Every structure is written in structure tokens, then in C-alpha cells.
């Protein structure tokens, strides 16, 4: 038994059970239905960028509330009149959209949105009742599943897929999702709920095993840990809310091929919190282990992903 096989055997002994409420499917069915009652409005502006091999547009689109989401959409040149595969690339926590020239170089389109209220230009227009007065995102209506910040970014991610499926350059049968950390979670969600995904790629996904994440206070959930430390009376309501957004539960809705990257030295999205949702996926799946890699996209995994895109 080699090193990774030994580690996998250890992880199999520590799988965290799902804790979904009985109405989880009904909740998400109603949320997606509500999102799609809002007529889609998309605008695009060609950007002046020094790339000869592809053209990039800034796209804005509306979502389920008054928030306008900003994105980049890049298309290889010389493919006019053709419908191409497209990667919907979700950035990590606190990041922003960028132009993924190396992805477009494989011959596919690439769509990258700004997650609201992070480093990009998508400004959150939602009104929240509960905050911690310090702007911490995971405190925004943590006790209300119908207005929690994570609900909003999940719906924005699904809306991105709806937008991409309408773009004239894109083959709607060849849309895939990709992301790391927060982006890995959004990749799961978008592939699970949009109905547009051909395949899901998720690298070191975050937002998994949320009760455990808050207990440990790792990464972006450190502020939520401190909020409940100061306001323990909110704990039960917060933990109830989190079950509706925990990737450990939501992977059950995946129906497409899914590819997961797990870094065995990750101290933020620790291996147990990545392997557990992977174990609950019932769709066709594959996992890649990277010994001694911290919280990052391993170069070998990114190369594997780009080879897959070139073969679409």
C-alpha cells in the first residue's frame, strides 16, 4: 500500500456524516425557482487588452436581488461562427475575477465572475439583519437560511451558468465548472443546481463540514467562531442554517462527472473536510491526492485540468 492509499484508508475511517434537514431539496428547488423568476439581463463590453489570441469582454448580469455581478468572458480568436466549450471559473475566497489566458489557450472560452463583496467589483446590495459590525461575510444573517450571505453567492454562481448558456459563442452542451477553495465549493453548487454543467472540477473545496469548520475557526470561518463565542445564544440557529449550505450535504445533488483535488497537507480545507463530501458523491467521480501540498492549486492538477479542456 503506497503513501496516498494509506492516507485514503485513514480518511475513510473519519468520514463526517451528512446532517441535511428533511426539507433541504425543497429549499433549494424553491431558491432556484425564485432565481429564475427574475428575467435575465446581460450586458457586455469589449475590453482593450494586449492579447492577440483571444478577445475578452466585461459582462454584467443581474441576479436574484438588486446586486449586479461583474465577470470576464474570454473567447479564442479565429473561431467566429463556432460554438465552443466554456469553463466557468470561480475564484477563491477574498479574490476577484481575472483573465485566465492559460485556460483560453487550450481552445475553450472562459467565464470568471466576481463574488459579491469580495475583492472585485460586484457590490452586495442585499440587506442583512445580523452582522458582527466588522464586515465579516460569514456573519451576514448567519441565523437565517433565507437571507444568509452564502445563499446569495450560491445563487449568483448558478446565475453565472444561466448567463453562459445564453452566450452565442458557447456550446451549451460543453460547459464545465472549475474552482479552488471557495471556488471549489461554488463549482460544486453550480454543477449541482444549474442544469447546464457537463462536468465539475473542484480543487481543495471550502465550505465543507461547516459545523466542524466553525468549531475549529479555520480560514474564513474564524470570525463566525468568534461571533458565536460572544453570542452563544445564536449557536443553534446558526448551525441549523449552515446545514442548508454545507457542501457535505449539497454534493448529493450532483448528477454529472466530478473531479476532486485533495491536498494532504492543507491546514485550511483539511483533508477530512474534503474527503467527506467526496465520499457522499453518488455521481461518477475521481479524486487526486497531492502529498505535502498546502492550500493551493497544485501545478500538476492544473496541468491535468488544462489537458482535459484541450480535449473537449
Write a structural description:
The structure is a single chain. The protein has 312 residues and is α/β, with parallel strands linked by helices. The protein has a single domain, classed as Alpha/Beta hydrolase fold, catalytic domain (Rossmann fold). Helix content is 34%, strand content 21%. A 9-stranded mixed beta sheet has the order 1-2-3-5-4-6-7-8-9, with helices on both faces. Helix 4 packs across helix 5 (182-193). The longest helix is centred in the middle third of the chain and has 18 residues, at 149-166. The radius of gyration is 19 Å and the shape is globular. The two termini are 34 Å apart. The mean pLDDT is 95.
Distance between the termini: 34 Å
Number of helices: 11
Q: What would CATH call the architecture?
A: 3-Layer(aba) Sandwich
Structural class: alpha/beta
Oligomer: single chain
Please provide the ordered H/E string of secondary-structure elements: HHEEEEHEHEHEHHHHEHEH
* Total domain units: 1
If you consult CATH, what is the topology? Rossmann fold
Order of strands in the sheet with most strands? 1-2-3-5-4-6-7-8-9
From the spread of the alpha carbons, the general shape counts as: globular
CATH class call: Alpha Beta
Residue fraction in strands = 15-25%
Helical coverage, percent range = 25-40%
Structure, briefly:
The chain is α/β, with parallel strands linked by helices and 312 residues long. The protein has eleven helices and nine strands. The chain has a nine-stranded mixed sheet, sandwiched between helices.
